[in-house]
Amino acid sequence: MEINHATTWWIVCGLLVAVELGTGSFYLLMLALGCAAGALAAHLGLGGTAQTVAAALVGGTAVALWHLKRQRGGRPAPAQSNPDVSLDIGQRVFVEHWRADGSAQVRYRGADWQARFQGQGRPEPGAFVIQAIEGSQLLLDR
């Protein structure tokens, strides 16, 4: 059995995807895209140099674009206040009574939770939005 250039590109592409699954480095997926471009160039009958150039251009461009996107996107919110991590962030709760220290007990998702006011001024009873969760305590604001 003879392994042609396209098969070699696909094998390297698969290895990069497998390593990415183990490490979580999204950059490896971008390099795998480059290998896929090299494989497609091989399927089109282009020579080894053209295959390498296609792989380098696609993979390198994908890595550069991903890196720029990450730099411009800033740092993600901490896990305790990130709605992508906790679906509770941004949900509404009703506070019937606030204690003098700015804490309260609220009913949320069928259970009693301790809550703490994070906003400015003195909290009044009413509807609040969950801003973050510290341990088992909800941090609330209007």
Keyphrases for this structure?
OB fold (Dihydrolipoamide Acetyltransferase, E2P); alpha+beta; 5-stranded mixed sheet; rod-shaped; 2 domains; 44% helix; 142 residues
Question: If you had to describe this structure to a student in words, what would you say it looks like?
Answer:
By secondary structure, this protein is an alpha+beta fold. It has two domains: 5-72, no CATH class; 79-141, OB fold (Dihydrolipoamide Acetyltransferase, E2P), CATH 2.40.50. Helices cover 44% and strands 22% of the residues. The protein has helices at residues 5-23, 26-43, 48-72; strands at 92-95, 103-108, 111-117, 126-134, 137-141. The N and C termini lie far apart (69 Å). 20% of the residues are buried.
Q: How is the secondary structure organized here?
A:
Elements: H1 5-23, H2 26-43, H3 48-72, E1 92-95, E2 103-108, E3 111-117, E4 126-134, E5 137-141
Parallel strand pairs: 3-5
Antiparallel strand pairs: 1-4, 2-3, 4-5
Short summary of the structure?
This protein has 142 residues and is of the alpha+beta class. It has three helices and five strands, in the order αααβββββ. A hairpin with a 2-residue loop joins β4 and β5.
Summarize the amount of helix as a percent range: 40-55%
Q: Spell the H/E element sequence.
A: HHHEEEEE
Q: Helix count, per DSSP?
A: 3
* Rounded average pLDDT: 91
- Tally of structural domains: 2
Kindly report how far apart the N and C termini lie. Answer: 69 Å
Total number of β-strand segments? Answer: 5
Structural class: alpha+beta
**Fraction in beta strands:** 15-25%
Radius of gyration: 26 Å
Shape: rod-shaped
Instruction: Strand order, main sheet: write it out.
Output: 1-4-5-3-2
Low-pLDDT residue intervals, each spanning 5 or more residues: none
What about the largest sheet?
5 strands, mixed
